[in-house]
Amino acid sequence: MRQDTRLSRLLHVLLHMAETDQPLTSQDIAAMLGSNAVVVRRIMAGLRDDGYVAAERGHGGGWRLVRRAEEITLADIYRSLGAPELFAFGLSNPAPDCLVERSVNATMDETIAAATAALMAKFTEIRLSDIQSDVAARRTRVAAGQEPR
Amino acid sequence: MRQDTRLSRLLHVLLHMAETDQPLTSQDIAAMLGSNAVVVRRIMAGLRDDGYVAAERGHGGGWRLVRRAEEITLADIYRSLGAPELFAFGLSNPAPDCLVERSVNATMDETIAAATAALMAKFTEIRLSDIQSDVAARRTRVAAGQEPR
DNA sequence: GAATCAAGTAACATACAAAGTATCTTGATA
DNA sequence: TATCAAGATACTTTGTATGTTACTTGATTC
């Protein structure tokens, strides 16, 4: 199944936004992502509505981060995307007549609920600033020739 | 994103197969699933190749379970499906030049790896026989009028 | 051995959501 | 007034599970 890359793309974008005071235009961001300015506006809209970024129009406009990297978790970003489906698998029929299928659904629902809770806990733990630390460490390794440029 | 319902469908089918000695034809199974005989053969092929079910052709043919319900876990079924993608989200670019994106990928990979391990552990714990117990309990509740027929 | 049944297989069609694209509007700045 | 950039709308593309048709292979029954 084709995968939803919005969360990963937003992390990438937000980290670049955190590294500069200059507003980034949708076009700039699209170039970073190998994508399209309209797609960028589409995936950024939720973050704007939730107050993590601000967009300004006209000359010198673009997107800015308006919260500190310590204050934004992966869970925040995920929710701003509208909390899309996390799992590639799911029930065939959510409300079947067949009793056997109802038991299958109950088992799957329980499994999915537990996995969702675990994943959301992880998302809540990870702050943008944690990834910034990883970037800094990676830059050091690259400078030391321990990781390809 | 549209979801992969093969795992859930196979559980449903295998439990019905476990309840009878009669072989079930692909057509019978398709009717249970509200699907198509060709789709059934497609999703059952892996289980046949892995020795969990057997298919026989001709008169009186069809699919039979050839392992006990205690001997089949959700993980077995998942693997027989070819271990399809578990998560609906993923990386945008698996091998980026951008250092920031590499850190994003590292973070996401780690999160996904942990969630995969947890989910597979759960899949390994759940046997077909566990769901059979739930079906039995559900039948009792339905007979007592505690759950809709 | 002819008819029938059912799995095996191949090729093609459909559905659907993320992603991509084109075009226009709104608002801000130079 | 021209230009820039977000906002918004409508449409297209893409990839994968699923659905469908048609044909082949193999087994059973009469």
Question: Explain this structure to me?
Answer:
The structure is a homodimer. By secondary structure, chain A is mostly helical. Chain A has a single domain (about 5-145), classed as Winged helix-like DNA-binding domain superfamily/Winged helix DNA-binding domain (Arc Repressor Mutant, subunit A, Orthogonal Bundle). In chain A, about 55% of the residues lie in helices and about 5% in strands. Chain A contains 6 helices and 2 strands. Chain A has helices spanning about 5-20, 25-35, 35-50, 75-80, 100-125, 130-145; strands spanning about 55, 60-65. A two-stranded antiparallel ribbon of chain A has the order 1-2. In chain A, helix 4 crosses helix 5 (about 100-125). The longest helix of chain A is centred in the last third of the chain and has 27 residues, at about 100-125. At the A-B interface, helix 1, helix 5 and helix 6 of A face helix 1, helix 5 and helix 6 of B. Chain A binds a DNA duplex (30 and 30 nucleotides) through helix 3.
Q: Any guess at the CATH architecture of chain A? A: Orthogonal Bundle
User: For this structure, what is the CATH homologous superfamily of chain A?
Assistant: Winged helix-like DNA-binding domain superfamily/Winged helix DNA-binding domain
Strand order of the largest sheet of chain A: 1-2
Number of discrete helical segments of chain A: 6
Q: Main sheet of chain A, how many strands, which sense, barrel?
A: 2 strands, antiparallel
Biggest chain pair interface: A-B, 54 and 54 residues
Query: For the record, what CATH class of chain A applies?
Result: Mainly Alpha
Shape of chain A: globular
Multimeric state of these chains? Answer: homodimer
Tally of DSSP β-strands of chain A: 2
Distance between the termini of chain A: 32 Å
Given helix and strand content, the structural type of chain A is mainly alpha
Low-confidence stretches of chain A: none
